[in-house]
Amino acid sequence: MAANLVRSAVSSGGFNRWFPRISGAVAVASLVVSLVVLNIGHAEPKQAPLPDAAWRVATKFILTAATRKDPQQAYALAAPSLRAEVTTKEWRAGKLPVVYSTVRQIRKTNWRNTNYAHPRDALINVIIIPNNGRAWNAQVGLTKVGHGANAHWLVNYFQPLTSRFKFTVGP
Known about the structure:
Elements: H1 2-10, H2 13-41, H3 52-66, H4 71-77, H5 80-83, H6 88-92, E1 105-109, E2 116-117, E3 121-129, E4 136-145, E5 152-160
Antiparallel strand pairs: 1-3, 2-3, 3-4, 4-5
Helix pairs in contact: 3-4
């Protein structure tokens, strides 16, 4: 008897007319809920101004690493991911994974709108103006490590943005 009741309800004209509409509405609602949940879970953190401490680390790193003036200090300002490309001995000897250049001036720029800053990481573009020769662009990634009073910025990425440079580990 129950089977006959279900069979007659499914074969009725009203059911055949409303079922596609209701199932479509349910599908759209589930899609909207899924997109909202995914976007909340993967929302980009709000952009923040580049902290002064991060800028100081970036400039100090460039002044000590690119110029090879103080590889020891550059090592202290580099995140483990950047240091991993060469041995500690090579790094301290001046064979860094950073393009060698003299540096007269460093300026922030937003080349192709790729700069961003969040509370614990940042990516900035800089123009490095050497003592002689042509200015060049580089991208510097920074990450904040530690918490509270122990929190500090480290450089985790350094890459020239112009194709005229080839990667070299020595001056």
